[in-house]
UniProtKB/TrEMBL annotation:
Keywords: Amino-acid transport, Cell membrane, Membrane, Transmembrane, Transmembrane helix, Transport. The keyword Disulfide bond does not apply. It comes from Mycolicibacterium hodleri. The chain crosses the membrane at residues 20-43, 55-77, 89-110, 140-158, 165-190, 220-239, 251-275, 295-326, 347-365, 377-400, 412-430, 436-454, 466-487. Probable amino-acid or metabolite transport protein. It is found in: Cell membrane. Belongs to the amino acid-polyamine-organocation (APC) superfamily. Basic amino acid/polyamine antiporter (APA) (TC 2.A.3.2) family. GO terms for biological process: L-arginine catabolic process; L-arginine transmembrane transport. The keyword Transcription regulation does not apply. One of its GO terms (molecular function) is arginine:ornithine antiporter activity. It is a multi-pass membrane protein. The gene is arcD. NCBIfam families: 2A0302, arg_ornith_anti. This is Arginine-ornithine antiporter.
Length: 493
C-alpha cells in the first residue's frame, strides 16, 4: 500500500481568523521576488573570480541538488504538516521546542531586515550610475533617499498583505524582463571557443593568483550561490495566509525551478562573451558591464534600471516576510502578543514599525561606519542558515519516526531527501564560517528578553529542561563572541 498522509489534508482550510488567502501566483511571486534581488545581477563577475566553466558546472549541479532537496523539504512539510504555520519558525518549534522555534524566527527576522538594509544600500549605489551624489550607497543623499523609499514601502505594507502581495506580483514580472533580455542577447553573442578555452581553470589567473584545483574552485563558487537562493522558503512562511496548503509546496518548487533556470543561463552564457579574467574584473553589477560590452552604453543603463526594479521588488517581498515571521510566533506566545496585533487592513502594524525602525537605525549606522553591501550580505546570509537546518532536520525526524506515514516507499524517499537536505544545510553553516555562528548567538541572546516577556505575559513556563540547555549554549557562545570582539579578533560588520 502506498503512503498516505494521515494528518489534515493539504487543501485544509486556513486557521480561523486568517485573512483572504494568497493564491498560487502570489505565493510563487513571493518566492521568486524574495530570491531575485541583487545576487543574479552580480553573478557573472563573482563566479568568474571563483571558478572556470568545468568546476562551475559541477558546483551548480551540487548546489542545484542541495537546494532542490530543501525545496522538497518545504513542499513535503507543507503537505504533511498543514497545521504548522510559519515555515522555518513553525517547523523548528514543532520539532525542537519553543525556544529553538524562537531562535529560528528571531534569526530569520534579523537576517531579513539586515538584508533589506543591504538592498537599500545597493539600490542607491546603482542609482549612482545616473546620479553621482548617490555613488557608493552610503553618502548622505543616498541614506536620505533610502529612508524615503523605506517609509514609502512601509506605508504600502500598512495597507495590508493583499495589497503588498499584488504589488509584488507586478514588480516580480517587471524585474524578470531585463534578465530575459540579457539572456537573449548573450545567447546570440555566445562564443563556444571562449567558454571552452580553459575549461578547468588550469591557466587563468585572477588578480595574479591561480584559481586552485577543481575542488577549491567548486567550494569557492558554492559559497557565492548561498545568497542567490535565500528566499526559497518564502511561500512556507506565508502558509497561514495561503488559499490552499497545496499551493505552498507548488509555489516553492515552481519558484525554485524558475530562478535556477535564470541563474544558470545568466552565469554560463557570460563565460562565452568575455575571457574569464576580464569577466572577473567587471565591476558590480557585472551583468550591466557584460551587456555594455556587447551592445554599448545603453546596455549598462538598461540593466541598472532592471536592478533598481529588482531591488525594490525584493525589498517589498522581504518587508512582508519580516512582519509575518514576527506575527506568527506572537500568536503562539513565543514573542510578545503586541507583535501580532493587526490594523484595520489586516497588517501587523507593530511588527512592521519595529522592523523598519531597525532598518532605519542600521541605515544611519552605515552612514557613520561605511559598511559595505558585501558585509551586510554575509551577516544576513549567516543568520538564515540555521533556520534552514532546523527545517531539514524536522522533515528527516518526521520520516524516521513515521509521523504522518504508513507503510510504503514515500517514507524511504523522504528519508533520503531529508538526509541530503540536512547534510547540505550543515555544509552551508560550515561554509558560512564559525565567526557568523558566534554573531548569531549574540543576536539570539539579545532577543531572548522578548521570548521571556512573551512566556511570562501568557503565564507559561519560560524554559523546559532541554530548552534551558540550549539557552546555556547560546549564553556561552555569546560570551566567547564578546571576548573576541573585545580583543579585535571578531567584528559584527
Amino acid at each position: 500500500m502506498s503512503d498516505t498522509i494521515v494528518s489534515s489534508p493539504p487543501d485544509a482550510p486556513r486557521r480561523a481568523g486568517a485573512k483572504a488567502g494568497l493564491g498560487l501566483a502570489a505565493l510563487t511571486a513571493i518566492v521568486v521576488g524574495s530570491m531575485i534581488g541583487s545576487g543574479i545581477f552580480a553573478l557573472p563577475s563573482q563566479m568568474a573570480g571563483s571558478a572556470a566553466p568545468g568546476p562551475l558546472l559541477i558546483g551548480w549541479a551540487i548546489t542545484g541538488v542541495g537546494m532542490l532537496t530543501l525545496a522538497f523539504v518545504f513542499q513535503t512539510l507543507a503537505s504533511r504538516k498543514p497545521d504548522v504555520d510559519g515555515g522555518v519558525y513553525g517547523y523548528a518549534c514543532a520539532g525542537f521546542g519553543n525556544y529553538v522555534g524562537f531562535t529560528s524566527a528571531f534569526g530569520y527576522w534579523v537576517s531579513a531586515w539586515v538584508g533589506n538594509v543591504a538592498y537599500l544600500v545597493l539600490l542607491f549605489s546603482t542609482l549612482g550610475y545616473f546620479f553621482p551624489g548617490f555613488e557608493g550607497g552610503t553618502t548622505v543623499p543616498a541614506i536620505i533617499g533610502a529612508s524615503v523609499v523605506l517609509w514609502a514601502v512601509h506605508a504600502m505594507a500598512l495597507r495590508g498583505v493583499q495589497t503588498a502581495a499584488a504589488v509584488n506580483v507586478v514588480v516580480t514580472v517587471a524585474k524578470v524582463v531585463p534578465i530575459l533580455v540579457f539572456i537573449a542577447i548573450a545567447a546570440v553573442g555566445f562564443k563556444a571557443g571562449l567558454f571552452s578555452a580553459d575549461f578547468w581553470g588550469k591557466a587563468v589567473q585572477i588578480d595574479g593568483a591561480p584559481l586552485g584545483d577543481t575542488m577549491t574552485q567548486i567550494k569557492s563558487m558554492m559559497l557565492v550561490t548561498v545568497w542567490v537562493f535565500i528566499g526559497i522558503e518564502g511561500a512556507s512562511v506565508y502558509s497561514q495566509r495561503a488559499a490552499t496548503r497545496r499551493d505552498v509546496g507548488r509555489a516553492t518548487v515552481l519558484g525554485f525551478a524558475a530562478v535556477l533556470a535564470l541563474l544558470l543561463m545568466v552565469n554560463l552564457l557570460s563565460y562565452g562573451l568575455m575571457t574569464q579574467a576580464k569577466l572577473a574584473g567587471v565591476p558590480d553589477p557585472s551583468m550591466a558591464g557584460v551587456l555594455e560590452n556587447e551592445v554599448g552604453t545603453w546596455g549598462a543603463a538598461f540593466i541598472s534600471i532592471g536592478l533598481v526594479v529588482s531591488l525594490l521588488g525584493a525589498l517589498i517581498a522581504w518587508v512582508m516576510l519580516c512582519v509575518e515571521i514576527l506575527r506568527l510566533p506572537a500568536l503562539e506566545h513565543v514573542l510578545p502578543t503586541a507583535l501580532a496585533r493587526e490594523n484595520a487592513h489586516g497588517a501587523p502594524a507593530n511588527a512592521l514599525w519595529l522592523t523598519n525602525l531597525c532598518v532605519q537605525a542600521l541605515l544611519l549606522w552605515t552612514l557613520a561606519n561605511s559598511s559595505t553591501y558585501t558585509n551586510l550580505v554575509y551577516l544576513a546570509t549567516s543568520l538564515i542558515l540555521l533556520p534552514y537546518l532546523w527545517s531539514a532536520a524536522y522533515q528527516l525526524l518526521l520520516a524516521v519516526r513515521g509521523d504522518t506515514y504508513q507503510a510504503g516507499g514515500a517514507r524511504a524517499r523522504d528519508i533520503v531527501i531529508g538526509v541530503v537536505a540536512l547534510c547540505y544545510a550543515v555544509w552551508l553553516v560550515y561554509a558560512g564560517g564559525w565567526q557568523y555562528l558566534l554573531i548569531a548567538a549574540m543576536f539570539y541572546l539579545a532577543g531572548t528578553g522578548l521570548y521571556v516577556w512573551a512566556r511570562k505575559e501568557s503565564h507559561l513556563p519560560v524554559f523546559t529542561r532541554n530548552e534551558l540547555a540550549v539557552f546555556a549554549v547560546v549564553v556561552l557562545t555569546s560570551v566567547v563572541a564578546v571576548v573576541l570582539i573585545a580583543t579585535g579578533e571578531l567584528s559584527v560588520l
